[in-house]
Please model this.
Amino acid sequence: MTAASEHERQSLLSIQVLRALAALSVAFDHVARYEFGRQYGLPDALPSFEIGNVGVDLFFVISGFVMVYSSGGFFGRARAPQEFFLRRLARIVPLYWLTTSIVLAYLLLQYRDLARANFSLASVVASYLFVPYPQLDGLMVPVHGVGWTLNYEMFFYACFCFALLFSRRTGVVLLSVALLALVALNQFMPLPNPIGYWAAPIILEFVFGMLIALGLRAGFRVPSPLAGCIVAIALLALAAVDRWGMGIVPRVVALGGPCAAIVGALALARSTAKPGPVWRALSLLGDASYSLYLLHPLAFTLPRRLFPYLVNPATSPWLYAALLLATALAVAVIVHLLLEKPITRFLQRRIASVFHGERRTAAAVDLPPLAKPRADISS
Model:
């Protein structure tokens, strides 16, 4: 393995670890805010962590990075947008539709009627289609509440298909300019939903990730000491935001900026350190981060009824929170290994076989007659 490829392997491992930390950040925020704050009326049981959902911003930056880094073979290739988008659907849709259906079934059992649950038929359909649509009270949240981020993800994937029509650098630059222009237009002339929803400044966090991946692919590197300083400064910036609040500073700057700095520093750092067992365990959690993100609200449901008999949330909040998070982690890893990963792998292979077959057919048609038999033999 070359030094460059070894560096990129370690960069991807760092990104996987960041994915795990991002999912854990969101899960912990929900434990502190919803489990203790709403379920038990103990908002001060755990330390205040106002920016706990910074994991979402990390996810967006990482998503932009991964799309550019892992799609090198798609740029400028015929029918690449179709294959790319189908692959993303195979990755995102099955588990999201499953968890959305579970939440919908629970709501119908609980309220006996969609209207009483604050949803309309249109909002339910929109939830499955990743289209932002208001609940009956006007709140722009899908049936499965955490799915609001996927509305942005799918919009970004659709836009990314446009970038695949060009070379990697040209496509990324054009898409970055287009998203920046869309956000700017929405600031000066508010656009109607769902475009206005998608044109929120937070969409620029995907651009941060794309540019970092472009730098990595171009060979740009950061010395490890400098990378460490960048991460430390970014963490201090996040602590400052947590302490004094974002105020008038937009989220894309207050949270997206430090998250982009962290992702960029770790992805571009020159490092020769060998990953240890803890690093590899976090990498596994990074693989299961999508499952953890979607499943942790559901995984808390049963323990919420059982654990108070074992641990008093008021007197042992940290132990209770640890039990909830451990349960969510176990459920996420099991679902990832036994359901999400096999389904995704099956669908990805089917999609690849279809497009690979088309490419082979096209190549055979383009070959001169005397070359066709040899092509058939080699295949």
